[in-house]
Amino acid sequence: MPGHLFSEFSPSSKDAWEKLAQKELKGKWRELPSWTISPGLTFEPYLTRQETDSERIAEMQQSQKKNPGWLNMPDITFTDPRKTNAAIKNALANGADAIFLNLRDTELNRCEFPKLLHSLRLSDTPVFFQTDKNSGQLFSEISKHAGYYLKGGVAFDPLAHWMRTGTRYESSINAISELVHHTKSMREFRPYMIETHLYHNNGADPVQELAFAIAATATYMDLLTENGVAPLLAFNRALFSVSVGTRYLTEIAKLRAFRYLLQRISRAYELPDELCVPFLQARTSSFYHTRTSTYTNMIRASSEAMSAVIGGCNALTVQAYDLDSANRGDFSDRIARNVSSVLSFESSLGIVADPAAGSYLLEDMSCKLADAAWKSFLDIEEKGGLIQCFESGFIQNELQKSLAQKVSALHQGQVMVGVNRFHQPTERNDAGAKTLADVATHQFTLLNDRRLSDYFHQQSLSKK
């Protein structure tokens, strides 16, 4: 086979491509954008092979998911046992492969698990129970009629919960350790979660989001191994849950960089690469949802979902476009499920394990994002680690600065569809809007999940 597929065409230099772009784009050449991911990390709009590091690219590709496809995992909020059971069955009959069941504010004795899980086989269908209640009690309830092997897990991040509420995490670490030991033969049951949502929803840029998530991973590895959990169990039994935002190419690179960084953590514990199988759930962003122009959220989530699957998620949760509506019904849930189904059945993205591999720009972005995040992670470690950095206010201050930059960008002309452009006047609804003043600025201030559009609406009104 010849060295070049089309040997009759001579290779073109980057200068030649640039001259052609100038000719084709004419006066718009200067408008060709670059990507600024975080302070000091900017990418040009195109890249050539000569500008890439082939060894680094091979290393990045080696860390990626080996099996193609993903689970369509819709988010279902518990209401009452029978209605929720019906909603789960309906989702599974109409495209879902797994369920993310939100029990967050529900006492476990209200769930009536025999009714809630009636005719569901947890050995076949992964169900992740999102709750901050006793994980041991939860497992006891769901395993009574589920046989000896369960899939799914407990979607609870004690450190993130501590940062939100101030509730200490130590007792939860003990409960997770016991549950990991109890379920050690259940390779597809994950007793705890490591999330990026808290950082993402407070305005973190991708470098910060990755750095804080890796710092959380290192913290859990330390806490669990100190509690007697084997490092390989501690690593493989986590559900890594990642928010995916609107910057299409950046978010693809972010997920790929996350897998690479997780491999660096596992290697630090001298774990064999072939035995480490991190499970990544990607969730479309609520931070970029607007409470107005809700149909726009549907389009936004479709772009985010594409980033998630091209980036290599194991499970995809597409959030409903009317996420905050008290009248949310089956239509929005069905549309959210179908976004994943269309990508799976009609795009062919599910037949390749790493669809982004080979793109010079995406490979370079993945590598440099990972390097910047690792550098930031080491800075966090030098300051005492994630827990110390939160107690000192370092994390809150970093998030505040990043959020302020995002709000400022909207006021300086960056477009957010349905928020500062392309919305109907009647769609404006600023109830509950916030100001930047409530963002953490002092030591040990708790974090809250936020929406970017809320700050734009509030500041816009304040100028009138």
UniProtKB/TrEMBL annotation:
Database matches in Pfam families: MM_CoA_mutase (PF01642)
Q: Output the InterPro entries linked to this UniProt entry.
A: Cbl-dep_enz_cat, MeMalonylCoA_mutase_a/b_cat
Among the GO molecular function terms of this UniProt record, one is: intramolecular transferase activity
Q: Which domain of life is it from?
A: Bacteria
- Per UniProt, residues of the Methylmalonyl-CoA mutase alpha/beta chain catalytic domain are 149-442
Q: Which Gene3D superfamilies match?
A: Methylmalonyl-CoA mutase (3.20.20.240)
Matches recorded under PANTHER family: METHYLMALONYL-COA MUTASE, LARGE SUBUNIT, METHYLMALONYL-COA MUTASE, MITOCHONDRIAL-RELATED
Q: Under what name is this protein listed?
A: Methylmalonyl-CoA mutase family protein
Organism of this sequence: Dyadobacter pollutisoli
